[in-house]
Amino acid sequence: MDWHLLGLSFITVFLSELGDKSQLAAIALSGSTKFPRAVFLGTAGALLLTSFLGVIAGEGAAQLLPVHLVKAIAAIGFAIMAIRLLFTSAALPEESE
């Protein structure tokens, strides 16, 4: 097992999930119930399932598509999102006081 890759994946996901909406939903649910353990197990199970499905989808894409094509698709997707963000924010009217 590649421990460096395991640690890097854990730190990246942990930091990105700190302010996630699912965490806020879990906090709200656990604060309003008598069974916080059930909320913990439900949210942990849901996170594990979505992570597992993401890994399976990524593995399937890696088996079907060449690496350079996946990188090109990702680069084009990020470029499209960046352009949309730039032009959408420029097109928004400024708020008047």
Query: What would you call the shape?
Result: flat
Query: What is the residue-mean pLDDT, rounded to a whole number?
Result: 84
| Overall radius of gyration | 19 Å
Strand count: 0
- What's the helical proportion of residues? over 70%
What amount of the residues lies in strands? under 5%
Instruction: Please give the count of helices.
Output: 4
Give the uncertain stretches in residue-range form: none
The H/E string reads HHHH
- What count of domains describes the coordinates? 1
Largest sheet, in brief, is: none
Structural class: mainly alpha
N-to-C span: 58 Å
Transmembrane segments: 35-57, 69-87
Main location: membrane
Protein name: GDT1 family protein
Keywords: Membrane, Transmembrane, Transmembrane helix
